[in-house]
Sequence to fold (989 residues):
Amino acid sequence: MNGVGLVLNFDTILVILAASLFGIFVGAVPGLTATMAVALLVPLTFYMDTIPAIAAIVTTSAMAIFAGDIPGTYLNIPGTPASAAYVGESHALAKKGRAREALGINLVCSVFGGIFGTIILIVVAQSLAEVALKFSAFEYFWLAVLGLSCSIFISVGSRTKAFLSLLFGVLLSTVGLDMMSGAPRFTFGVPDLMAGINFIPVMIGMFALNELMSYYGSKSEKKTISVVDKDSVFHNVPRHVKRYWRNMVRGSSIGTMIGALPGAGADIAAWISYGVGKGRSKDSSKYGTGNIEGIVDASSANNSGISGAWVPALVFGIPGDSITAIVIGVLYMKGMNPGPTIFMDGSGLIYALFIVFILANLMMLPIGYMAIRLSKLFILTPSRVLMPIILCFCIVGAFAINNSVVDIWLMLIVGLVAYLLAVNDFPMAPAILGLVLGSVVENNFMSAMLRTGGDLTSFFARPISAGLGIAVILLWCSPLLIKAYRYQKRKSERASA
Amino acid sequence: MIMTNHSLKTLITSSIAAAIMVASGSALADYPERPITLIVPWAAGGGTDATARTIARALEEELGQNVNVVNRTGGSGVVGHTAILNAKPDGYTIGLATVEVNTMHWQGLTDLTYEDLTPIAQINYDSPGIQVATDGAFDSLDTLMEAIRTQPKGSLTASGTGQGGIWHLAFAGFLMDQGIPADQVIWVPSEGSAPAMTELASGGVDVVSTSIPEARSMIDAGRVKSFAVMASERLSAFPDIPTANELVGSDYQVGAWRGIVGPQGMDAEVVATLESALEAAYQSDTYQDFMTQRGFGTEWRNAEEFGQMMEEMDGILGEIVEQVGLAN
Amino acid sequence: MRDVFAGIGFMIAGIVTIITAQQFPTLPSLQYGPSLFPSLVGGGFCIGGAVLTLNSLWQRRKAAAQEVQDDPTLATSPPEKMGWAMVLPPIAIVFYILASDYLGAMLTITIIMFLLMLLRKTKIYVALITSVVMSSAIYFIFSHYLLIPLPQGVLLGGSLPWIS
Fold:
């Protein structure tokens, strides 16, 4: 197979190694994110050969998505919208002195999810893409609503507050030029706002700025997290894997499926997988208090979602998420036109690409392990030195997305609002999902209505759409149904007694 | 490391020389004497970005200076084009302008028009195609046009870009050219061509109007076919696709251009230097090979012709925007 | 008690959102205008805010009925007393935005780091070395390798090679 030869040469391996380190670095530094890492790579890939260029992107994105959980665990500052789903779990574990254990199982699940997704990609890419092409605005509408609903149902504490936080995110998503009418909304005459609000400065503001303000607000230098010697990265992994392997497989399957849908991606995948996990778990009450099971569900799903996103990208040239959108551009630039021909052109490029996928995911084990060990730095560095550095990374990171000062302002303003909400016990994670999915819900709803002349029943007219719609309605009614069921059960017990 | 006296001296002299060169400002004869920034109003990884990076690389070879691409994305191009406009007209910040310069001001999104920019050279032009799903109801442009004419207004849907985007206007203009009202077919806005392609394949819309290269992978996959391209002659990269002129006798042409521009008030000599360097860069193998491989249309216009083309296109697109009902 | 204010705040925000949304243009071809979703969000703010307020008031009354002496909402979540210093990160960000065009990104973040470190009683040489090394590293990585046009600043006269 000439694909092997394309990958196994010194240059490519070197690129994979360098990209791993870059990905780990960007992911682990609060304020810098995976999408940003990939966007920043584009100019560099221009000067590379095809395989090293693709390898650089694949490796960087996989590493950065995993590494985003490191500051999430230690500092409560998640690196991606996907890891916002379970940052509560991993940070709670870190407070109990089990940070490495949490990151260890996270790493193993990420590797498992990534390889699982790749195998699906290799085996059934074309037929999976066929299914994805059956999805139209109606189906995407329901899927996004399902994701949003999950964020409320999995939240800990007041559902009213989670709902309001979600709406805050949705409101942010309406800023900018409205896709349907082309009219600017809430832009206040600032041209930069016409583009809409990018989730990266918002995430930095909501999580990082929030933590920074809390630190400077309190007089104490004491850390809530300390190094625990017996906390080992891999020691407990076999036990957790044995106990939760079903969650890993389920999370990876959900991740690959949802990741393969263009416009859905790893973010929705992680949230839905976490929601499904909580719904089906025997001890769902432990979710949100530092539960390994939730981490297993969501972290398998987000890494498999990244592999899944390549399915439509390779088969039809249609991006599955923001990272593959960039990747398609690079593929074209390197003369590797996505499409069915990519599987048959005989150059072996596609096999080389698969090998790169597997290699990148395997590489994640040692490099991820190293990163987890090194992340002790977050604890060993005194806060008084660490916090100013994080602040500066946040400023530069917010600027770097669009090279725009407006994004720094945005980070600041959203951060201040989020701080007010957070001290009043509003959860922040639903707001992030609201921002990411708000426009998906709106645009698909509007687009569907435009086509059917405002016929609301059309959301149940297509089979997949109807199925998803019913699932959403059942989810909404589930608290009532469970209550009714318990009431009936009690009544019948009383009757029999 | 031990630094010898000699090399230290060289270092000092050369750095002083460098400082003086920077301080003395841009003596025109020596232009360009430091790296040039090329602003791109669209995101990294897209077609426009790739075109910009390729021409930048070819331009570097001509000018002997680095040409750095900076993406300023957002607001349907408003942000990036405004950034070009606001740059210092010293020739060290130029930009890659796109057809949105001719459309956004008609829609009231910005005050910026082509008159605020200094045209340097046009380097690309893409013609719109008319694409339908392979398993759809239409087997030729005739049956499609017949259906559009006879079925009641709004029963067919088309997509391909956002509301008021170039492919929307090009399609509406084509309908108008055929004596059909611009709003006979409902335009379903989408975020770019890729989502429109999935909608087309899933039966969500009936027609997609985009450039042919944007539809290429779906055409290769056998899910989509292109009836016609609105160009004066068949595209060399897609010789099987007939022109609209061959089929319905229409020589209507509105498409997407890309060109290099600068802010207003640039020195004529600097523009001339850039223009000739760009012409060489345009002819270079680097650029031509890339455009052929992507299937992008190449079309060269020098500064003067480029300015005229923008002026002409501005009038045509203004008329279409008005007819579509998006004028503001 | 704070939930009452939060609830009222959301209701006000909801009303403002709805009023602003009514000014958005509509297209004849669209069944639902661009104001639909913002209005729905505004409506959601009002309903959610109302639920939050009423819930909080109801719980207070219930608590009062049980003749609990002290304020129950205060007892359940004691408001952490935040020092004035919590405004430092936002001030540092504003300082960066205003000063970086003049001082340049590198000098500005050096100053921010140095001052913030000193404030929490870091040893002066540690603060100096860390802030200079870190800001140089950030500046170099971002502008040299990642080609981000960080402001060079008028003060240094563009003498730093931000891109090449």
